[in-house]
Amino acid sequence: MRRTIAMLPLALLVACSPSAPPPEQKPPKPQAEQSTPDNATLGSPGWYAWVDQRLHVSDDGHGPDRGSTEWNHAVQRKLGQEAPQSPPGSPQWQQAVDALLRTRPAL
């Protein structure tokens, strides 16, 4: 009887132990990836905001209007040698800018 009572805490400990380790949690995405508009249409206000945020074209809302010729040229200058050769603002240019910004770290 004493042996049974002495084994009871051990039995409870084993019975209450988790049977498997907790599932691994994925590390959080870097901030730049979190704000990436995965479903934003090229040329949409959300896409322009994302490009602006990645390249810091505007300064606290001051600067050229997003999507304007002046803004497109500012993006082109920020990208430097990596800038697409398509005419700034064209659908081909937007696609190239999008692909480039998705593969490089944020500034």
Query: What portion of residues is helical?
Result: 40-55%
Distance between the termini: 72 Å
> What percentage of amino acids are in beta strands?
under 5%
* Structural class by sheet pairing and helices: mainly alpha
Global outline? rod-shaped
Helical stretch tally? 5
- Unreliable stretches (pLDDT < 50, length at least 5) are none
Report the count of strand segments: 0
Order of helices and strands: HHHHH
Mean pLDDT: 80
The largest pleated sheet is described as:
none
* Rg of Cα set: 27 Å
Written account of the structure:
This protein has 107 residues and is mainly alpha-helical. It has a domain at 41-107. Helix content is 50%, strand content 0%. It has helices at 2-16, 31-34, 45-55, 69-79, 91-103. The radius of gyration is 27 Å and the shape is rod-shaped.
